[in-house]
Each structure stands twice: as C-alpha cells, then as structure tokens.
Amino acid sequence: MHSGEGEQPFNYAVGEYGSRFLTEIRDNKKFMGVRCPKCKKVYIPPRKLCGPCFTEMDEWVEVASEGVLYSFTILRFAFLDPETGEKKPVPYGYAFIKLDGADTCFQHFVEIKDESKVKVGARVKAIFKEKREGKIVDIEHFVVVD
C-alpha cells in the first residue's frame, strides 16, 4: 500500500466472492453479483449469505456498469487517497450507486464536472482504468450520463 511518498507493506484478503468480483472488473470490466435463491435479491458487491433470508448464495449474475445515484455527498477538501497515494481533485463526490440489475448499492467516487447534474436518481456509469490490477480502484470513478 502506498500513500504519497510513504509505503506500508499491507495486504488483505477479500475472500472467494470478493476475488471473483475484482477479477471480473479487472479482466472484463464487468460487475458480477450474486442472487439469493429464496428472495431473488441481487447483491453488489457479492456476499456468501443473504442477510434477511440467511440463505447461502451461489448464483452469479452480471449487472450493468450503469445505474442511478441512490445518495451522495460532495466533498470540497483534498486528501491523499490511501489506495493510490494521489491527491483527489476537488470537488469530488462519494455515492451509493444502485447498478441496473442489482438490489443493493455500491459505494464509489463520482466525478463532479457540473454539480447541477449530480442529484438523487441521476444516471451514472463506471469509468474503468486503462490498466487494471484487480483492485477496487480499477473503477476510476462514476460519471453522470444524463
């Protein structure tokens, strides 16, 4: 892990489901979730058990890389992103995004070019990095598309 000029040797495991989720993003620019066989809820990011049903889930489904802003905040202070060590441009957004085909929200950064277009219900799409490494920051950010 790098942050600015500092480096700290740190790794963590994301488990079987998290690994597949990140691998699909890295290799295919796809979001994969899992569907509960009982209530049919699709989870992004994927998890092994459905919380309300306590049912094990193993049906993988692809969801869209576009969705809607469910909630968001706009930040106006700069900081070094601990994942990249790079300074975040201001302003930037952080949002809960409900991808098309999913029943849960996914959290990520939103690029802010025109604040008047950033609103609950706005359509957004994922922008992937050109060179992906199997990390959540392979999704550079989301942009408003309407």
Automatic annotation (TrEMBL):
Transmembrane segments: none
Limits of the ChsH2 C-terminal OB-fold domain: 60-128
ChsH2 rubredoxin-like zinc ribbon domain mapped to chain residues: 30-54
Source organism superkingdom: Bacteria
Name this protein carries in UniProt: Zn-ribbon domain-containing OB-fold protein
Organism annotation: Candidatus Zymogenus saltonus
